[in-house]
Please model this.
Amino acid sequence: MNTVTLRPFAVGDDSALWAMLEPVFRAGDTYAIDPDIPREEALAYWCGPGRHVFVAEVAGEVLGSYYIVRNQAGGGSHVCNCGFVTSPAARGRGVARAMLAHSLKTAPQLGFRAMQFNFVVASNTRAIDIWQRAGFDVVGRLPGAFRHPEQGFVDALVMYRRLDQAP
Amino acid sequence: MNTVTLRPFAVGDDSALWAMLEPVFRAGDTYAIDPDIPREEALAYWCGPGRHVFVAEVAGEVLGSYYIVRNQAGGGSHVCNCGFVTSPAARGRGVARAMLAHSLKTAPQLGFRAMQFNFVVASNTRAIDIWQRAGFDVVGRLPGAFRHPEQGFVDALVMYRRLDQAP
Model:
C-alpha cells in the first residue's frame, strides 16, 4: 500500500523535478515544449512567476509534480491551468490520480472557478481518459496542431472543467 | 481613398502603440490582460521575445499594429498566434482588414502552417465576423471563461485557420 503525500515544491526539489521533466520534455510527444530545452529553463518554466507548484511523495521519494497557474490575465483570471508530470517509477501507484484530486481541491481554494488544459495531444489517450473520468470535457480540437515525433501531425484538444460543480 | 501601409515596428513607434493599446487594455472587454497593466509591461507583452511586430500606417500615421508569434513551442511550433489592435481613428478605413491580409501572407513566409486565436471573447462579434469571413473556424468554446466588465461571464472562442489552403 502506497500513501501519496502532496506538499509544496521546495528549492531542494530541483533535481528530483528535473529528473522527471527531462525525459518527458526530451521525448517531445506530450508537451509542446522545445525538446532541447535546457535544465534551468525547464525549471523556470515549471516554477515560474505566479505558479503554485506541488510535489507528490511516496515513502519520502518525489514521484510527481504539478503546477497551478492562472490561464489568462484580466477577465480570464478565474480559470486556471495545470501541468502534471510523474516519474516512470510512479506508474500504477496512484500518483497521477492523487495529484489531480489535490489540484481540483486546491484550485478553488486559490479562487479559481474552472480548470483548462490548452493543448492535450490527441495521441495522449491515457491522460485524456483520466481527465474525462474526472469531469473534464473536450471543448476544442485543434486540427494538426501538434507534430508528433513518430506519428506526424496530430490534433490537440482543449479540455475544460468547471470547479463549482461535482464532476 | 486611404492607402494602408504595413511595415515592421520600430523603437520610435512606442508611443503610438501605447496610445492604441492603453484604451483597449484598460477597457478589459476584449483582451484577457490585466486592465491596470503598466505601459512598459504592455509594450513588453506586445513586442516580447520571438514576436514579429508590424504597424499599419495611413498617410504617415500609425493606426494599427499586430504581432505574430509561435503559439506553442516544440511540436506546436508550426502554429502561430496573432494579436491585433487599431486606433479608434482607424475605423472604416480598412486598417484591420489590411493587417489581417498582411498577417496571412507573412505567417507562411515565417514557416507557420496554421494560425490560432486562443481566446476570442464571444461578445466581440465584430472580430469574430471578420475572422470567419477570412476562413477561420471556431474550433473551441470555453464556457464562461471571460468575465466581461458589463456582461459578466461570457464564453471565449478558440479560432483556427490552416495557412496552406485558400480560405
Remarks:
- Chain B has a mean pLDDT of 95.
